Amino acid sequence: xxxxxxxxxxxxxxxxxxxxxxxxxxxxxxxxxxxxxxxxxxxxxxxxxxxxxxxxxxxxxxxxxxxxxxxxxxxxxxxxxxxxxxxxxxxxxxxxxxxxxxxxxxxxxxxxxxxxxxxxxxxxxxxxxxxxxxxxxxxxx
Length: 141
What we know:
Layout: H1 11-21, H2 30-44, H3 53-78, H4 83-93, H5 98-105, H6 108-115, H7 123-133
Helix pairs in contact: 1-3, 2-3, 5-6
């Protein structure tokens, strides 16, 4: 009896599969921005499993398009906003509760205090929130 060995996809196959699901082109709408953020989060949250070369290349390219969109559409609107306003906006955009933010930051009480304006975000909180929301950490400064 002959067995068929499964092979892992090549970098090119991984990359092309991702491009077929969400083509790499400038992001022009809020809907495309949200879809891109979901993909970025999914590829970034692989845990101990390293992304394949194809996934890493795709993530780098998509990240540039997300950054370009945010620089031209989101950051100007948030320029006058406080870091707390930015955090509330991002939580609303992602449908997050204070408990969800507590999981992202590592401590629920800290999240509650931050959201009430009783405490500033620490460097560790800023890094965690920026990674979770796929934004530049400077939006929280």
